[in-house]
Amino acid sequence: MAVAFGVHLGNSSACLALFRDGKIDVIANDSGDRVTPAVVSFHENEKVVGLAAKAGLARNLASTVTHNKQLLNSSLSEEEYSNVVEKHLCKIIKDKDSLTKYEVKRGEKLCYFSPEEIAVCIYKKMYSIANSSARSESELRAVLCVPLYFNQTSRQTVMRSAEEAGFDVLQVVSEPSAAVLAYGIGLQDEEELFCLVYRLGEFRQKWKLDPQESRRSMAKLMAAAETCKHKMVSDLFPEATMFSSINPDEVIAVGAAKQASFLSCSFDPDCEHLSMELPAVSKPIFIKLSGQSELKYVIPELSPVPVKRIHTYPVDSGYSEITVELYEKERIDSDTSKLLGKATLTELNGATQISVEVNINNIGGLHMTLTEPKSQIKASLKLDAPRQLALMRSYSSRTRPSCSFSMRSHIIPTCWKVKSGFSFVPYEDAMLQLGGDPGESIGTSEDPES
After folding, report:
1. Is 285 strand, coil or helix?
2. Quick check: is 439 in a domain?
3. What GO molecular function annotations does the UniProt record carry, in alphabetical order (predicted)?
4. Partner of 33 at 20 to 30 A CA spacing, among 125, 150, 298, 390?
5. Residue 13 is part of which domain span?
6. pLDDT digits (tens, 9 = 90+) for 287-333
7. Are residues 66 and 134 in the same domain?
8. What CA–CA distances, in Å, run from 196 to 199, 252, 402?
9. Is 77 part of a structural domain of the chain?
C-alpha cells in the first residue's frame, strides 16, 4: 500500500507523521526526536537545520533564523510586521523590491534569504526524514498544514516551499481541521456535534524561556497544565469531552497524515478551497415511528451531500407492522414540522428490530429504506424532487472557524454562506451555527446558481 505523510511546520518546531498499512506513526528524526526544531543556522561554509542549529543559537544569534513561519503570512498588518521584526534575533530588512529578507553574516560576507527559502530548508530536513522512513517510494506524497488565517497566497508559498524540498503535495489544510481529524472527530459520528480547537503556544515568546530544557520543569508544567485545562473545560463546558491523548506537538501532523490517507492524487493545487461551493442539506430531517410521539433527529441541516444515515430501533411483539414517517423542520428547535412521506413494514412476527436508512443524493433526491434484518422484508420511500438541496458557498476570512468533511469530499473549507432556490436557510442562523459573521445579508432566488 502506498505511503502518505502529514507535515506540520510550526513557529518553533516541525513534525512528520506517516500513514502506512492503515496505521499512522510519528517519525523520529536522525537524533531520535519526534519533533524537529524549526531553526536554521548559517555558518561560513555550511547551513545547519534542526537540533544542531538550536543548540548553537547562543553562539550564532545574528546568523540563526527562528520563528520563520510568522513571515510566511502575506497578510500581516504593518503593526504585526513591526512586532515580528523587533522580536527576531536575526536582522530583517526590505530589499529594493520591498521583499522581506533575512540579513545573515557568513564569514565576512552578508547574505540574504527570503522566508520562503528558509521554509525550503526546513522542509528539506523533513523530506530527508521522510525519505529514510520510506526508501521504496519514488514520490513522497504529503498533506501540509497552515494556520487558519493564512490566505491563498500564503498557502501557495508554503506549498511551493515543500514542493521545492521534494514533496509531492496533495493538499494544504488548516491546522484546526488537522487536529480534529487526528482524533477522528466527525468521520463516523452520526450525531451533530461542535468541536472547539484551542491551542496555547505563547509561553516562550512572552517569557523568553524554554521549559523543555529541563525535564523537571517540564514535568511540573505538564502536571499543572493538565489540571488547569481540565478545570477550564469542566467549568466552561460541563458536558464536553476533552481530547488530549495525542502529544500537542504531534497532533497536527497526525491529522494531516490521516487526510493524506484519503487522497489518491493532488487536490486543490492552487489552494482555492477557501472559495468553493458544496451541496448540502438545507433543513434538518427527522423520523417518527408508529406509537411514538417524539421525532428522532437523523440528518442535521448543513450536512454535505451525498449523505447517508442508518439507525436501528427495537419493535415490541405487539406490532405486526410498523410505519415510519419522514419529516423536515425549518430549524432543529422549531415547534412545527412538515411531513414528507411515510413507509410501512408489514408481516412482522414477534419482537424484532428494524433498520432505517435515510439517504440524500448529490442532487437532492431523498430515499428512505426500512429493513427487518431476520426476514429481510423491506419498504421504501423515494422523493425525487431536489427539495432538500442547498448550495454552500465559502469565503475567506482570518477569523472564521474551519470545518472538515474529509471522508466525503476531501474538502476542508474555511466557512460558508448558504443560499438555496428550493428551501431557504436563515442566513443569520447558519452563520451563527458555524461561528461566522451574520452581518452580510442574502436575497432569495428561484435559481440556486444565481
Report:
1. strand
2. no
3. ATP binding; ATP-dependent protein folding chaperone
4. 150
5. 4-182+249-271
6. 999 888 889 988 888 777 788 888 899 988 888 899 999 998 888 88
7. yes
8. 10, 15, 10
9. yes
